[in-house]
Write a structure and sequence with these properties.
This protein is an alpha+beta fold. Helices cover 24% and strands 23% of the residues. It starts with 20 loop residues before the first helix and ends with a strand.
């Protein structure tokens, strides 16, 4: 992947206004800077606070040019005055770690090396991008060949994330245990286990439980004469084994609150990037899960207690659905 050019990503295309030229030149030579010593960054909604000398530690990088060759007024900010970068806020933590001491240290189970390499290339950190590329190449060389169901190669991701072991010659043991075309298709014609499928050593699917939860509320007027006012579901939470959750929901799973959880550990901190329960149910059904149980609790409060009309009742409920796959 080609690195971004020197002007890409800068709010004004990389140029410096004439009025700001002298200040930028002084900053570039390590002298006076219009930026504060402590800078606050909003990267894709995630807030980071660091020293200016950290973000400019790699010369000729994107951040170095932004915070040494431009003025604060030329950079975009959010509503609270933080410098804003429209990039992946959760991967930026590793970019910032690298800028602190120029060392690459990743968790033992880190499935997003390719995305982090893309971020390194965007921020124009060639040494970091090179290290990530080498690590990916080493991992791919040590991993057995794997194939997607459509025949495409899957060299960068483990078989758990939608890949199958490469099948031996026709008539081998794997051919006998391979699922039939009918069993691998959903009623819509797509793969039954979309977005991914996980197989255990015996050739069957992993068994386990996934719990889906959501919190909702609605308001009913006096004596239920007025129409009920429903709020949309704000967030759908996912609880269960990390590997199963990633298998079923794939890229629609938000792992920001528990980003480094190993595949065989359990978590209750994931949530989905969409707000439709039916969409979650469809994915679970296509992955071979069935609903085993559900429960719901509710509370009621009068409107004035919540800042609403005097005669309104506000009902709040929390519901969980337990799905299992044998």
């Amino acid at each position: 992947m080609a690195l971004a050019d020197s002007a890409r990503g800068l709010p004004n295309g990389g140029g410096v206004s004439p009025a700001a030229g002298s200040g930028a030149a002084a900053a570039a030579t390590g002298g006076w800077s219009a930026f504060p010593e402590i800078v606050e960054l909003n990267v894709g909604g995630q807030v980071y606070v660091t020293r200016r000398c950290t973000v400019v530690s790699v010369r000729d990088s994107l951040l170095w040019r932004m915070f040494s060759q431009q003025q604060p007024s030329e950079l975009p900010r959010d509503s609270k005055g933080r410098f804003f970068l429209d990039r992946d806020g959760f991967l930026f933590r590793y970019i910032l770690d690298y800028l602190r001491d120029l060392q690459l240290v990743l968790p033992e189970h880190f499935p997003e090396r390719s995305r982090l390499q893309r971020e390194a290339e965007y921020f124009q950190l060639p040494d970091l991008a090179r290290r990530l590329a080498q690590a990916r190449a080493t991992t791919a060389a040590a991993r057995p060949a794997v194939l997607h169901r459509d025949g495409s190669l899957c060299a960068d991701e483990p078989p758990l994330l939608g890949c199958l072991e490469a099948e031996p010659a026709e008539g081998g043991a794997a051919a006998a245990s391979a699922p039939s075309p009918t069993a691998s298709r959903s009623p819509s014609g797509g793969p039954l286990l979309t977005p991914s499928q996980s197989l255990d050593g015996a050739g069957g699917r992993r068994s386990g439980y996934i719990t889906i939860g959501y919190r909702g509320s609605y308001t009913i007027g006096r004596e239920a004469q007025a129409d009920a006012k429903f709020r949309r579901v704000a967030r759908i939470t996912v609880c269960g084994k990390t590997a199963l959750a990633k298998e079923v929901f794939g890229e629609t799973l938000n792992e920001s609150r528990d980003p480094d959880r190993p595949p065989e550990r359990y978590t209750a901190r994931y949530y989905l990037k969409f707000n439709f329960l039916e969409q979650a149910f469809d994915r679970l059904s296509e992955a071979g899960f069935r609903m085993a149980a559900c429960s719901s609790t509710g509370t009621c409060a009068f409107g004035p207690e919540q800042g609403g009309p005097a005669d309104d009742k506000i009902w709040t409920s929390y519901t969980e659905y337990v799905f299992c796959r044998d």
